[in-house]
Amino acid sequence: MSQCSVYILGSGAAKPSPTRYPSSQILEMRDRRFLIDCGEGCQIRIRQMKLHTARLNHVFISHLHGDHCFGLIGLISTLGMDGRTNDLYIHAHPHFKVLMQPWLDFYCPDWPFKVVFEDVKPNAVQVAYEDKAVKVTAFPLRHRIPTSGYLFEEKPGDRHLLRDVCDAYQVPVALFNNIRNGDDFVTSDGIVIPNERLTAPPTPCKRYAYCTDTKYTETFLPIISGADMLYHDSTYDDAHEEHAKKYFHSTARQAATIAKLAGVKKLLLGHFSNRVASDGCSLKEAKEVFPMSFVAEDQQKYEI
User: Fold this and answer.
1) Is-catalytic flag, 67?
2) From the candidates 67, 233, 279, 298, which is the catalytic residue?
3) CATH architecture of structural domain 5-157+203-303
């Protein structure tokens, strides 16, 4: 089973700081790389972290505020100059294509790949992407404009072959794939060897939830329940709770409350406002509610 991890390209809010770029991250899951939001400086962080883009074929945009999408046209332009040929799929609000197409027509008219827009309905729960190994579900958040969160889920893999047991029962190599897929084995004497004796359960599937920007809401708890990691809007600390209400964001304590109610394994705090003097204060407040809370830092990799 391949590793599952998230690379933080930007963990800041609308105004970038010297240490935090606007929202952007790359999720690596089942040998695929997904770009989640694309704030300014995204492609710079990709270069700084020495991340390759050959397997980066899908971009998921949460909403159309600039700090979540202003970096995309620059990234697409660079991909074209790098000689990319694989099509790039953009999953976003239906209006995003209307906004982006004139820029693409002007700056990238002869690029050797297509930019394909896949609509995400911001007020509905829907499967935004699915292949044989991964499923991505979009769901509504509560922000000033239509905004979607995303749940990335691995699909169950094959069972693990117990080679020494199979050899003991003289299972032909030609049947190994069938055994991995759940078949029993029948010996030459007609004895049925149950699959559970020949294999071990598949590696547990990983689930990663991305919820930014959003006011405190429990509406999506059933969707993210039990996720291995939750990245949640933590724009403000307790001292700025009124700002969170006004601008439809969350505090770190509110993010921790969601993590606790959802029963996730780890919480990654992000989307920090420059109003917050120290994210250490936010972390302290979150840990009082949910001990497995961590602060997202730019240019860091987090295992899921």
Assistant:
1) yes
2) 67
3) 4-Layer Sandwich (3.60)
